[in-house]
Amino acid sequence: MTGVVIAGGGPVGLMLACELGLAGVDTVVLERLERPSGESRALGLHSRTVEVLHQRGLLDRVGNQVPVWPKGHFAGLRKVDMTKLDAEHSYALMVPQSRTEEILHERALELGVDIRRGHRLVSLEQGPDGVTVGVEGPDGAYRLDGRYLAGCDGGASTVRKLAGVPFPGTASTVNALLGDVQLIGEQPAGRELLRLEGGLFGLIPLGEGLYRVVAVEFDAEPVPRDVPVTTEELAAAAKRVSGLDLTIGEARWMSRFGNATRLVERYRTGSVLLAGDAAHVHFPAGGQGLNTGIQDALNLGWKLAGTLNGWAPDGLLDSYEAERRPVAKRVCMNTRAQLAMMHPAPEIDPLRELFSELMDLDQVNRYIGEMITGLDIRYPMGGEDGAAEPSHALVGRRMPPLPLLTPDGRVNALELLAAGRGLLIDLADALPAAWADGRTDRLTRLTATLADPAKAPGTAALLVRPDGYVAWACAEPGGTEGLAEALDRWFGAASS
């Protein structure tokens, strides 16, 4: 029996596969496409996702890492100052989704993941010991048993439908097209998403004469998603929205999208779990879709692995929904707010003007920037129910990129997470050594000093989960109040 079957070999499914592979979990990825499509609906990685690649040792594989978009967008207002965000990677990287998939595919193979292209999940049955899925592959149909099934198969998720998970929300009210195409004749100056009288229009240069053309018409009957887009249709929509006469040559790919906003009622149904667009869909405002999905996979991976490897405490796997569903709900909210402010109706103009003024305030600018990048996420940890201030400023947040001085030299604490294990970092050399006993298979204990104490003021020790979030911290050297409970909650009982 396979440990985890993953339906969907896009960035979310592959990220989850990498996380499981790190922990030695037997994993099979079923991807219906026989070969990569080369399509890149998403073009950028936000700072939090860049940080995730860094912590797993994958950032160097991206290639050219010139930071882009120092000014981010919110509702089409290019005012979000990414450079003021409190993060090591306070920028976005323009990395096509196809390249992100290549990196994660390569890494998953290195970790021994079984990736089956041209294999489509068509049925599932749940039993007391896991799931049995029916698969159609190049050599015919077969059945595959797994302890768990992860649906990472997009907004039209087969897994979600077969599991009977409700997907409530709102239907699309816009007709939207995009295409990566060659433009013939005079090439207009590159633009980003503009709010015009006819709707939204984007013309983004991708290099080598290729442009991404985006046209969004409001209050229009959407054309069904399965109707192929033609270059004539894309040019006509661009004309209606922008007034520009574009002569489109070769099209690398074209697609439809909309503003349907939906969120599953539950992320787990028995042995079936959902992640990425299979769990939440929304208008692609602010480039949050892929990035939210990657974070889903990061959160779910180590919890599934701990469950399968036998050390996870009761409730660990259920904390996936408890932590990630509120995040997705907030993304759905802010993308709907952005689209409302991008409507071309004149009565929206005063609202945009007022919001633009508010974004000139540093506190508002930072608030918006942290929201769309995921830097504002704070998970409740144990007794931290959100009703009161956490016991330490770092608890529930991502561990900062702490510069540590260790017996082996200087290291960025983020890089210590590359193996997918937790960390117990003693910055005052005052914790009894026995605190990590019995959990060395899932937790690394480290004594170090901060090369820059300003990076974590008032911190003598901290416990970090495999996904990089701080589960416990204390200010007093040798302080251990709450540590035993945090260890049991996130790393299970110590082995005898």
What key phrases describe this protein's structure?
FAD/NAD-bd_sf, five-stranded antiparallel beta sheet, 496 residues, FAD binding, flavoprotein, eight-stranded mixed beta sheet, single chain, RIFMO-like, oxidoreductase activity, acting on paired donors, with incorporation or reduction of molecular oxygen, NAD(P)H as one donor, and incorporation of one atom of oxygen
DSSP helical segment count:
10
Low-confidence stretches: none
> Rg to the nearest angstrom?
23 Å
Structural class: alpha+beta
What is the general shape?
globular
Strand residue percentage? 25-35%
The tally of beta strands, per DSSP, is 27
N/C terminus separation: 28 Å
Can you summarize the main beta sheet?
A: 8 strands, mixed
Question: Care to give the gist of this entry?
Answer:
Residues 2-334 form the FAD-binding domain. By secondary structure, this protein is α+β, with helices and mostly antiparallel strands.
Descriptive notes:
The strands form 7 sheets. Strands 1, 2, 7, 8, 9, 10, 18 and 19 form an 8-stranded mixed beta sheet that branches. Strands 13-14-15-12-16 form a 5-stranded antiparallel beta sheet, covered by helices on one side. A 4-stranded mixed beta sheet has the order 24-23-26-27, with helices on one face. The protein has helices at residues 11-22, 47-55, 97-110, 158-163, 231-242, 289-308, 319-342, 349-358, 362-373, 483-491, and strands spanning 2-7, 27-31, 44-45, 71-74, 77-81, 93-94, 114-117, 120-127, 130-137, 140-151, 169-170, 174-183, 194-196, 199-207, 210-218, 248-257, 261-263, 268-269, 272-274, 280-281, 403-406, 409-412, 422-426, 443-447, 449-450, 461-464, 470-474. Helix 1 (11-22) packs parallel to helix 3. Strand 9 and strand 10 form a beta hairpin. It is 26% helix and 28% strand. With 496 residues, the chain is an alpha+beta fold. The relative contact order is 0.13. The protein is globular and about 70 Å long. The chain is built from 10 helices and 27 strands.
